[in-house]
Design goal:
The N and C termini lie far apart (57 Å). The chain is mainly β and 132 residues long. It has one domain. It is 9% helix and 44% strand. Strands 2-3-7-8 form a four-stranded antiparallel sheet, with no helix packed on it.
């Protein structure tokens, strides 16, 4: 459930329409970045991997967001990621001065989002009965 759906369908949101919804998660991320320069040509590349999981320590009260808008506890989703969700983002780009005082730039971005099913234990192995 997204924060928007949670907030718009929540009784707390209906009673307090000047609030916002939020999704809380514990995130782990890492990135690789590269830059290569040859004369005036600059090439860039990057890759980022983010894993979202439910918070290990759930919030017990509401909060004010960075803009000072209140987020009520009833409008906070803390169990969105039943299974870990992985977001992979990669990008490439280049820029090169084409004329004096101007730059020609381009960029390509790819995003892959996956959810991982969690297994509690591997299935038991079947052992054939001994031959007589």
């Amino acid at each position: 459930m997204t924060a928007t759906a949670l907030a718009s369908g929540s009784a707390a949101f209906a009673a307090n329409p000047n609030t916002m919804g939020a999704t809380v998660s514990d995130d782990t991320s890492w990135m690789l970045l590269a830059k290569y320069t040859y004369h005036q040509l600059r090439l860039y590349a990057g890759y980022e991997n983010i894993t979202f999981v439910n918070p290990g320590t759930p919030l017990t009260t509401g909060l004010d967001n960075i803009a000072g808008i209140p987020v009520l506890l009833a409008n906070i989703s803390q169990k969105t990621y039943v299974n870990p969700e992985h977001l992979q983002i990669s990008w490439t780009g280049r820029d090169m001065p084409s004329l004096p005082l101007s730059t020609l730039a381009s960029r390509t971005t790819t995003t892959i989002k996956t959810a991982t099913a969690r297994r509690s234990a591997p299935p038991p192995r079947h052992r054939p009965a001994p031959a007589n």
